[in-house]
Design goal:
Low-confidence stretches of chain B: 1-7, 70-76
Strand order of the largest sheet of chain A: 3-2-4-5-1-6-7
Structural class of chain A: alpha/beta
Structural class of chain B: alpha/beta
Order of helices and strands of chain B: EHHEHEEEHEHEHE
Distance between the termini of chain A: 39 Å
Mean pLDDT of chain B: 73
Strand content of chain A: 15-25%
Strand order of the largest sheet of chain B: 4-5-6-7-8
Distance between the termini of chain B: 38 Å
Number of strands of chain A: 12
Strand content of chain B: 15-25%
Oligomer: heterodimer
Number of helices of chain B: 6
Radius of gyration of chain A: 20 Å
Mean pLDDT of chain A: 94
Number of helices of chain A: 10
Largest interface: A-B, 26 and 26 residues
Largest sheet of chain B: 5 strands, mixed
Shape of chain A: globular
Helix content of chain B: 25-40%
Order of helices and strands of chain A: EHEHEHHEHEHEEHEHHEEHEE
Low-confidence stretches of chain A: none
């Protein structure tokens, strides 16, 4: 693809393709470059595409690690800490090569926004690290705004033949803020719970368990949701103005929860990168990102809203 | 006060924080608590913040038919409920409770008890009692055999938040011979492993409790 990609710095490349062939060849060229350098290679793409790439690689596939992004990256906010940094940390002192594709056409609008924020913050999370990350974007099937986001969040763009600097690339934190579009209002019919003091958490967890049971969520996933809501509500009590409102409702295929408080969400990297060793704080959101299927944090003028999705159709 | 603090609600080692609105509520609660204690032949110790409240409580007790002599004392932490009270004091009390929340089915949300070789935790660990475990661990550190692992019985734990799990992870890393946790709920094991992949220093024993 480009010899300069082997330089020991962070390269974050958006692969723009419009055919299955363009996709396969673009990914393959990148993977081969990593393999030729004897580097650890991770391919994290949606289920079916994993097979496409595996077939293309043939016997080389055994030197490549695979992850199904529809699981590992179901929640885009999970990808940096639990997949990419994890892979890099397992290969200390080595340049890692990753095909990372959290964006696919069936993603909802809310998910695509979360993907755009992920791709922006990836630049901050990996700044100074020795890694090459290629993110495929299907220009034929993805909405225009998703392609526009790719231009803003990837310092380098490629089309399988050429690689060039993106003229639209902008400061990652600014870009992440730009993609932080307001969340649609919870429906009037949502169940609402007020949290005013730490002692409220106990019955809040009971209420969440009841809601999870009402939509027949398997108990293990209901428990995970309960842990996630408890962490978000605790954050609101501690840092978010001391009180919060939880709204719970269903949408087709989804159980949706939103916590609104009056706090300021100061650190855009919270929950994306692990807190420094020895720190007793900052683990909550990291775990929340691992537990649920979507986390969207929206900084409002007068507070913070956190929306989470639990997929019901699995 | 419209509640009964029944004797069997509390067990040795419980530490209950009672929040009250008015001085009358305070006195009535303390008197009722102490009367219950006296009624079952238990010793009641009361640390008061001044002679006035000592006398007032003694008066309430006499009113309840308890013969109060000098040297009798009573033991329950009471705080006037003012906006930030729970924030200031609640998290150190595993059993913080509002008078209005107590009925006969009430139990403390968290129970922590220890002997030199074993820590037993029961109930739900969250922000409301976050500060109650560190002092117990601190004390255990000074009285336990440093060459033996600290045994922690979590079989009656029904919930632990991420901060509680993190406290266990750091305790395991600092305790010379690590932690041996029995009956750890599956979901807590999962959180512990997410926080520290190797769960270094922690040994799990027994079947995990149902998640």
């Amino acid at each position: 693809m480009n010899a300069a990609l082997a330089a020991p710095v962070f390269h974050h490349i958006g692969l723009l393709h419009d055919t299955p062939d363009g996709y396969a060849h673009g990914c393959n060229a990148f993977i081969q470059e990593g393999l030729n350098a004897g580097a650890p290679v991770l391919v994290a793409v949606p289920g079916h595409d994993t097979d496409v790439i595996r077939d293309m690689l043939g016997s080389d596939a055994e030197h490549v690690q695979f992850a199904d992004m529809m699981i590992a990256g179901r929640n885009p906010a999970r990808v940096i800490p639990w997949l990419l940094l994890d892979f890099a940390d397992r290969n200390p002192g080595r340049r890692v090569w990753v095909v990372s594709q959290p964006v696919w056409p069936a993603r909802s609008q809310l998910e695509l926004t979360a993907c755009a924020r992920h791709d922006a913050l990836l630049n901050t999370a990996f700044a100074g690290r020795d890694a090459a990350i290629l993110c495929p974007y299907d220009t034929a099937r993805l909405p225009g705004h998703a392609i526009g986001a790719a231009h803003r969040t990837h310092p380098l763009l490629a089309d399988g033949t050429n690689t060039w600097d993106s003229p639209y690339y902008s400061d990652p934190i600014d870009a992440a803020r730009m993609f932080d579009s307001p969340l649609p209002d919870p429906p009037e019919s949502a169940h609402r719970y007020m949290i005013n003091r730490p002692e409220d958490l106990r019955w809040l967890r009971q209420a969440v368990a009841a809601q999870a049971q009402a939509v027949n969520l398997p108990p293990v996933r209901g428990k995970r949701l309960m842990v996630a809501i408890n962490e978000l509500a605790s954050n609101s009590l501690e840092h978010g103005g001391g009180r919060a409102v939880l709204s719970v409702w269903t949408e087709p295929g989804l159980l949706v929860c939103q916590i609104d408080d009056s706090g300021t969400f100061a650190n855009p990297m919270a929950g994306r990168t692990p807190p420094p060793p020895g720190s007793s704080r900052g683990h909550g959101l990291l775990i929340v990102h691992e537990l649920v299927d979507l986390v969207r944090i929206n900084q409002r003028l007068d507070g913070t809203s956190v929306r989470i999705h639990i997929n019901l159709d699995e | 006060v419209g509640w009964k603090l029944v004797n069997d609600l509390l067990k040795p080692g419980d530490h209950v924080c009672l929040l009250y609105d008015t001085m009358d509520d305070h006195l009535a609660a303390v008197a009722r608590y102490a009367t219950t204690g006296f009624g079952s032949d238990q010793q009641v110790v009361y640390f008061a913040d001044g002679a006035t409240s000592l006398e007032a409580v003694a008066r309430s007790l006499r009113h309840n038919g308890v013969a109060v002599a000098d040297g009798h004392a009573i033991g329950l932490c009471c705080y006037p409920y003012q906006g930030d009270t729970p924030r200031r004091v609640g998290t150190a009390h595993p059993g913080t409770v509002y008078a209005s929340m107590i009925d006969e089915s009430w139990t403390p949300q968290l129970r922590v008890s220890r002997d030199p070789a074993r820590l037993t935790i029961a109930g739900e660990m969250d922000l409301s009692n976050r500060d109650s475990l560190p002092p117990v661990l601190e004390r255990l550190r000074s009285v336990s055999d440093p060459h033996a692992p600290l045994r922690v019985d979590m079989s009656a734990v029904t919930f632990a938040d991420v901060a509680a799990s993190h406290l266990l992870v750091t305790t395991a890393q600092e305790w010379p011979a690590g932690l041996t946790i029995s009956g750890c709920p599956e979901l807590v094991i999962r959180t512990l492993r997410l926080l520290d992949e190797s769960a270094g220093g922690i040994t799990f024993t027994d079947d995990a409790a149902t998640p």
